[in-house]
Design goal:
The protein contains 5 helices and 2 strands; from the N terminus they run H-H-E-E-H-H-H. By secondary structure, it is mainly alpha-helical. The longest helix is centred in the last third of the chain and has 19 residues. The chain starts with a helix and ends with a helix.
Length: 131
């Protein structure tokens, strides 16, 4: 591991040790007030921050951007407005890992349905635009 990676691991271990847990080891989450939930919702303009769909305030779920289980803080700065399916799908993975997973799924499904691979289509379009 590089020195930077070791520092990141140490930082995450420290953050994890500061996460509150119940007697069974389960992470204890803060309960946010209705006003806080409304602010998160309004800040996201009433849209899921992962898929962009319009959602109702009562249908909104709160997602920890950096999961508590990975050292994320249980703080308003680390919360996002999400729809239930996206929150469930994202689970406890980091934002970059989530985006990579979505991209892999998109590429696979597009190639599966198309006769020409998506990568070739992109290369073809780029080469065509250079002329």
């Amino acid at each position: 591991m590089t020195p930077e990676e070791l520092d990141e691991v140490r930082k995450n271990k420290l953050a994890l040790s500061m996460v509150k847990r119940d007697k069974h080891g389960k992470i204890v989450r803060k309960i946010y007030s209705e006003d806080t939930r409304k602010l998160i919702y309004l800040n996201a303009h009433g849209k899921c921050e992962l898929c962009g769909r319009n959602i109702l305030l009562e249908d909104m779920t709160i997602d920890h951007i950096n999961p508590l289980s990975m050292g994320g803080e249980d703080d308003v700065e680390n919360l996002a407005c999400t729809c239930y399916p996206c929150n469930l799908f994202k689970g406890n993975i980091l934002p970059d890992d989530f985006m990579e997973r979505i991209t892999e799924i998109f590429m696979y499904q597009t190639e599966k349905k198309g006769k020409i691979s998506l990568k070739w289509k992109i290369v073809h379009r780029l080469l065509s635009s250079v002329r």
